[in-house]
Amino acid sequence: DMVNLGPIGTIPNHYLFRHNKHPRFSSAHSQNLTDNIIFHDNIIHATQQKLLSRKKRKTYNASQFNFNDEYFKKQWYLYDDYNNVTGAWRQGVTGRGIVVTILDDGLEHTHPDIEANYEARASID
Length: 125
What we know:
The chain is low in regular secondary structure. The chain has helices at about 30-40, 85-90; strands at about 1-5, 15-20. A two-stranded antiparallel sheet has the order 1-2.
């Protein structure tokens, strides 16, 4: 009941199989099917693909943090479930009075987002 769908890309000696009696999309792992393949004389290794589910990340409106940034909703890495920057902001942590030094030869210090806060004395090439 196994159908060889052919090689997997250009990877040598790797093939994709489908079992006709197992649903094409299933969240249930079928260990007995995998075992049947693994124990075949011509098979060195087999792994059954698992159907994974994706969870949409929460998005925030920049206005709740008292700033206007049209790109904020695209900066998912700032949200609670990743780096938790937004959680710190809700606690009132702003970074005011903190100096951060970035060691980066490619820093464009004349960029409008950086220029007003750029400190030349902290930049040594």
